[in-house]
Amino acid sequence: MNKKNIDTILVRGGLTRSNFDETSEALFLNSGYVYESAEQAEASFKQEIDHYVYSRYGNPTVEMFQNRLALLEGAQSCFATATGMAAVFASLACFLKKGDRIVASEALFSSCHYIINDILPRYGIEAVFVFGNDKADWEQALSKPTQAVFLETPSNPLLEVLDIRMIADLAHQAGARVVVDNVFATPILQKPLELGADIVVYSTTKHIDGQGRCLGGAILCSQEFIDEHLLAFMRHTGPSMSPFNAWVMLKGLETLRLRVEAQSHAAHKIAEFLQSQKKILKTRYPALPTHPQHQLAMQQMSMGSTLISFDYDGDKAQVFRFLNRLQVIDISNNLGDTKSLITHPPTTTHKRLEEEIRLRLGILPNSVRLSVGLEDVQDLCDDLAQAMN
Ligand SMILES: *Cc1c(COP(=O)(O)O)cnc(C)c1O
């Protein structure tokens, strides 16, 4: 299939039909497989024949989802996982070992921060964090041999944008594989592999389902990385995606571009509206010229994303009153949904970070993150305005 025909890939990529000739992707909700003979079972385990063995290793519905997402991303291969965090952990734990070193950006989703800062060092892996986009800081951090670089751009929750190409070049000189958490940008708005990343991870819970139903994750990488590292790790530790969730995600992919583009258009308008409001001290949205990395963002991403963050004029109590007065937008820590969702990161998603790190990242007591859905833009602006006043 032509790489450029994204809409066709989203609807048909990876589709295999059973001998019932069904139109829609079949849901193979089964854990195991049967063999015609003991000899066939033996041959399957020896991988002499192509036969599913167990759904922890492979399942036809999960495979359709993996193949469709790989075509979309332009990756050789994909492994689907139970959640986004399973994808983040497996992408690193499958190849890092005692004595290795990982360099990561400091502006991370707090569970990613926990994996790198708390879990990996327990296994003898040194973790070094870099704050911001400054080339000299990344050069310094990558002046020693390093096995992994992990980053998220735009970052959760403040939408800081990192230069994937610049960091990937420095990482490769230090001998590292580059893992990019592309959840905020989605495979529609940003292609990290084309910018030098080696591995892309997703929480498919977010935009790929995008309708608040299922948890899921995915790791996109080379076939070699799967064969040499990931497959054995996934098989033996077991964080695989359920076939049911893969089936929901396949349906989510069909409308992914339509949703992400419509939600990003709406987010851009709402970011402009927020910027004009007295009660909003600072609005961060990559497609606004006031964003500190606006130019870089527009080189790396085709739109500003479905997310906005802003600082509200008031203390924590006043921010809470603002959130509680919203009537259309729901208070929720999820994101990328068709329903607009708002959260107060310092008391929810980023509560676990030490206050010193939070403040250095700019997550203040009055910082708010808004995920823009598919509702009418004017209804959303009206809702925000009535809650402010
Ligand atoms: C939500 C999120 C994750 C974790 O995904 P789950 O599916 O909730 O496990 C990882 N990274 C980022 C940037 C996220 O927003």
Order of neighbouring strands in the sheet with most strands:
1-7-6-5-4-2-3
Helix content: 40-55%
Main sheet record: 7 strands, mixed
Q: Tell me the distance between the termini.
A: 52 Å
What is the general shape? globular
Heterogens: pyridoxal-5'-phosphate
Unreliable segments (pLDDT under 50, ≥5 consecutive)?
none
Order of helices and strands: HHHEHEHEHEHEHEHEHHHEHEHEEHEH
Structural class by sheet pairing and helices: alpha/beta
Radius of gyration: 21 Å
Q: Approximately how much beta-strand content do the residues carry?
A: 5-15%
Mean pLDDT: 96
Defining traits:
single chain; 389 residues; alpha/beta; globular; binds pyridoxal-5'-phosphate
Provide a compact summary of the structure.
The protein contains 16 helices and 12 strands. With 389 residues, the chain is α/β, with parallel strands linked by helices.
Write the layout of secondary structure elements.
Elements: H1 6-12, H2 38-45, H3 60-73, E1 77-81, H4 84-93, E2 101-105, H5 110-122, E3 126-130, H6 135-141, E4 148-152, H7 164-173, E5 177-181, H8 186-189, E6 199-203, H9 205-209, E7 217-221, H10 223-237, H11 243-254, H12 256-275, E8 280-284, H13 294-300, E9 307-312, H14 316-325, E10 330-331, E11 341-343, H15 355-361, E12 367-371, H16 377-388
Parallel strand pairs: 2-3, 2-4, 4-5, 5-6, 10-11
Antiparallel strand pairs: 1-7, 6-7, 8-9, 9-12, 11-12
Helix pairs in contact: 1-3, 1-11, 3-11, 4-5, 14-16
This protein binds pyridoxal-5'-phosphate (PLP).
